[in-house]
Design goal:
alpha/beta; 47% helix; globular
Length: 325
């Protein structure tokens, strides 16, 4: 099958490499050093799903129409990336694999003639250098959207990774948003997710940011989709029980990641000197909290601190982080 993957970071690189290994004709849309490296040497994938190099076609923009396309850019880059490729995306399944809550809307605006399918990657992948991707923890990919297009995409992706189809994709997006709250404090401190969770004081902050996000979701009438250990019922307990009980949630999440240090996607962006998605993660909670009168002071401070690290390039010691709260 002719497959296009727009964005070749951790998630896009994983999808492209696995589908190429399966024998599909994969074209990657990338830029800069990543484009050059992949064009010359392919994508080297290692970790939980094998160690191999996949040869793919790498281009700065599409020149032919694929049979299916995947969008795996950062949230802030999606609309512009899709606008560049829009002439070649009409009438085909377009799978948007993205964090945050705005991916499907951006895709529909950027490629209005495509059949847009939402996807959420629950596997942990690291991309810290061009053409190199490491799977640090395997996991499912959730799909939701038009039934026929979703089934089509699930048959393709299901041949290389575990797939879960859901008819509550908005709820799944919100649950993944809670999961993504493990990313910000590693980006601020330079520590792995596991190291942050092991620090009791930082774990308290992470837990409270999750509680804020859950409160905002419930205030908006969201029914959280069950993903891994998270469920609508568990998240109701998270906001109702004392905060000390809530710390079990990030602890369990870190435990499921295993012993391989997980930097989280936001820290990966910091280390590559690229803008992060923080405005679409914790920042989305802050914006939406204002619309439903739910205070989000911890999330707001976390957003500010991530932007400070983006500007300065200097990580903050845990004590310095705590002093800001």
């Amino acid at each position: 099958m002719r497959v296009a993957v727009i964005g070749a970071g951790a998630i896009g690189g994983t999808i492209a490499a696995l589908l190429a290994r399966e024998g599909h004709d994969v074209t990657i849309v990338a830029r800069g050093a990543n484009l050059e490296t992949i064009a010359r040497h392919g994508i080297h994938l290692r970790g939980a799903w094998g160690d191999f190099t996949a040869r793919v076609t790498a281009v700065p923009r599409l020149v032919t129409t694929p049979e299916i396309a995947f969008v795996a850019t950062k949230a802030q880059d999606a609309r512009a990336a899709l606008a560049d490729q829009a002439p070649f995306l009409g009438g085909l399944p377009l799978v948007v694999v993205q964090n945050g809550l705005e991916g499907l809307q951006s895709a529909r605006l950027g490629a209005p003639r495509a059949d847009v399918i939402g996807a959420l990657a629950l596997y942990a992948a690291s991309y810290l250098s061009p053409g190199e991707v490491t799977i640090t923890a395997p996991g499912e990919t959730y799909l939701g959207g038009p039934v026929i297009a979703s089934l089509y995409a699930s048959r393709l992706l299901g041949s290389v990774m575990p797939i879960v189809l859901t008819d509550n994709f908005e709820g799944a997006q919100w649950t993944k948003l809670i999961i993504n709250h493990v990313n910000a404090l590693p980006a601020i401190t330079g520590l792995s997710v596991q190291q942050v969770v092991a620090n009791r004081a930082l774990r308290v902050l992470m837990t409270e940011s999750m509680r804020e996000a859950a409160r905002v979701g419930f205030a908006k009438g969201i029914t959280f989709e069950k993903i891994s250990t998270l469920s609508n019922g568990l998240l109701r307990l998270l906001v109702r029980l004392p905060a000390s009980f809530g710390q079990l949630l990030p602890w369990l999440m870190a435990r499921r990641m295993g012993s391989t240090p997980n930097p989280g996607s936001t820290l990966q962006s910091i280390r590559r000197h690229q803008p992060t998605e923080i405005d679409y993660l914790n920042g989305a909670v802050v914006r939406l909290g204002k619309t439903v009168d739910v205070p989000t002071p911890v999330s707001a401070t976390i957003v500010d601190l991530v932007h400070e690290v983006e500007r300065s390039g200097q990580f903050m010691a845990p004590d310095a982080v705590l002093a800001r709260f």
